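Figure 2 data, in text form.
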Amino acid sequence: MVAFYAPFFNVYLAELGLTATQLGIVAAIFPLFALLAAPPLSSLADRRGWRRPLLRLGLLGWAIILPFYPLAAGFGGVFLLVLLEAAIRSPTAPISDSLIARMASRHRLNYGGMRLWGSLGFASVAIGGGMLWRRWGYTPMFATAAVAVLPVLYLLRYMEPAGAVAHAPTHSPRVLARDPGLLALYAGAVLLGMALYGTFVFGGVYIVGLGGNETHVGLFFGLSALAEVPVMRASDHLMQRLRGVNALLLAYVAVGVALLGFALAWSPLTLLLANTLKGVGYGLFFVVTVRLIDARAPEMWSATAQTLFSACVVGLAPLLSTTVSGVVYERWGPETLFGGLTAVCGLAVALLLLARQRGWFAREHVYREGKEEIG
């Protein structure tokens, strides 16, 4: 569903006449709602047992809004529609991640082995969509994405709504803040999210500026998603061999090297190669972080814990960087922007090394099944 329009959205807006600064403003709306709306909504879903109903409502509202984008003219209309879309879709990804991660844990399944199908689907649709929209233009992509939500809604009925904890939680979600390992994971997610979101917002525009076309834009996002597939498949093995946190460190380094490639890119091909490496890093980063959070957070607050991760990556991180990134891109060019984001990845690596040295990941399950446990 997302791949039908999201990889091409900013290129579409640029063709409407929006400046890089306006693109940065529009892009900041999604993070704002991911930070301010998604956590309380997910917490409500945890308390009331409304995970599936809230997810269904968000997906349906998202699909209703998408076909209105071709009717928007100029920055004002786009701004309003993005505001509505962001409000409705904000809790969908973290709640679904929570449901699936818990199902994988209960049934002893490889979460990465399931999550890779999302990357594979995104990759194939993004590459195919780039070819289609080059021939037909971008207008049909919004209605196509809206129709694509129907099988998602159908499959939602098979997701297990509750885990081992069937009763309502009796403790505050603030218990999550008592685990220094979780806090380190969230802080690292903010830093890496700043770098990753910059590639998502300006990557398509950048490759067009280097001489690319719609097909290159589709390949830019599609090849990156394809690169996630093998690393997600091998994520369980990597976590066992590297003991979890070291696998996450490897992901941070891979993203940092990829961002350096962005800063040095001189053609569409070199940018495609750099973004493919970023896909490897992102795939490992996402799966390992979700698994580490799932292992540390109490089940009664699992959706809330995953939503906080999502709020860090697609909420707080973009809010701290997106608008500034738009100004930097417009005034000093993409080389300066991605050079700065490479340095941000270096900070994330340093933070993770510090947390590992201090032993912050040694304590697990600060709260589990009604008892406090400090390990």
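Caption note: The longest helix spans residues 302-332.
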